[in-house]
Amino acid sequence: MAKWLLGSLFGRLRRRGWAVQRIGRALRLFVPMTRDVVMRRYRPVPWSAFAWMGLALAYLVMPFDLVPDVILLTGWLDDVVIVGWLLTRVDRRLTAYRDWKGEAS
């Protein structure tokens, strides 16, 4: 059963490679964007990106989840799905920053 579940999970990830790519891009660009905002090199400030990232971090550290983490695989899986979804929202808000940096979308 666990083998089938992992195979199904990896199959879904392969089909949704765009989402994994967006999550990675959001994580890779958020810290440099924050640095550029703090150093006043980049304006306007993408407050919505900070809000979505704050929600993602809060959900990770919050002791209450939709599915408790004590339910091993399912509890962690809901964290991955919800935080991943929030990080895709961060990536959407960083489009103007990517254009400013000259990176391809």
UniProtKB/TrEMBL annotation:
Look up the domain of life of the source. Answer: Bacteria
Where would you say this protein principally sits, based on its record? membrane
Q: Which residues form the DUF1232 domain?
A: 51-85
The entry's protein name is DUF1232 domain-containing protein
Q: Where in the cell is it found?
A: Endomembrane system
Quote a single Gene Ontology cellular component term: endomembrane system
Keywords in UniProt for this one?
A: Membrane, Transmembrane, Transmembrane helix
Per the record, membrane topology reads: Multi-pass membrane protein
Q: Where are the transmembrane segments?
A: 45-64, 70-88
InterPro entries to which the protein is assigned, alphabetical: DUF1232 (IPR010652)
